[in-house]
Design goal:
With 200 residues, the chain is mainly α. 52% of the residues lie in helices and 7% in strands. The protein contains 8 helices and 3 strands; from the N terminus they run H-H-H-H-E-H-H-H-E-H-E. It has a 3-stranded parallel sheet, sandwiched between helices. Helix 4 packs across helix 5 and helix 5 packs across helix 7. The protein starts with a helix and ends in a 10-residue tail after the last strand.
């Protein structure tokens, strides 16, 4: 009886080993073969950076993008530009054709869209429009024309979402679930300190 159980255990163990994902464990020959295949795929692409970008070429070239399943967390004191960095990353990814969800947990949706619009004008047209000038309604006719062009771009490809979830929908699960419903390629959460703990 003991030999039968031992034989069955070996068989089950062999089956279990054969079912393991090749993403988590490979032999040397399999790993090198896949590395060469992936190299060929990268060489054939026009763009090396894959995944989410941060909007700063030096950082994006270094990281080669934030890949699915990875997190990029920015930590800095108050008023150091974390929200602006979030906006610039969202803009960069949207311009690369990604579906973007930017959760704003502290700043209003309106304030965030003002920042997005100013950032888009500066990024797309090489302008130096100051956010304060925009907020004081002192932008030039030229800048207003550029803003209208951006509105038209957004209407053509309406895949940039800014969301301020209510206080009961700020757990990591709730935010990611909402982003998945919107089929987001990039999820950016501004102000992690305003997230809530998962229930349960």
């Amino acid at each position: 009886m003991l030999e039968i159980v031992a034989g069955a255990a070996e068989e089950v163990m062999a089956m279990t080993m054969s079912l393991k994902s090749k993403r988590h464990e490979t032999t040397g020959s399999e790993g090198v073969r896949r590395a060469l295949e992936n190299y060929k795929i990268r060489a054939a692409r026009e763009e090396i950076i894959q995944g989410m970008t941060l909007g700063f070429p030096e950082l994006d070239d270094h990281t080669m993008g934030i890949h699915p399943g990875e997190l990029c967390i920015t930590i800095a004191p108050q008023a150091m530009g974390k929200s602006i960095l979030s906006v610039l990353a969202a803009i960069d990814n949207w311009l690369r054709g990604k579906r973007v969800v930017l959760f704003t947990l502290e700043n209003s949706v309106e304030m965030t869209w003002d920042r997005v619009l100013v950032g888009m004008i500066n990024r797309l047209y090489g302008e130096e429009l100051d956010g304060t000038t925009w907020l004081k309604a002192e932008a030039s006719i030229h800048h207003l024309q550029k803003a209208k062009e951006i509105r038209e771009m957004m209407e053509e490809r309406d895949t940039f979402h800014v969301i301020m979830p209510d206080r009961h929908s700020r757990s990591p699960e709730a935010l990611i679930s909402k982003a998945m419903m919107l089929e987001a390629d990039c999820v950016i959460i501004d102000q992690l300190t305003f997230m809530t703990k998962p229930e349960g």
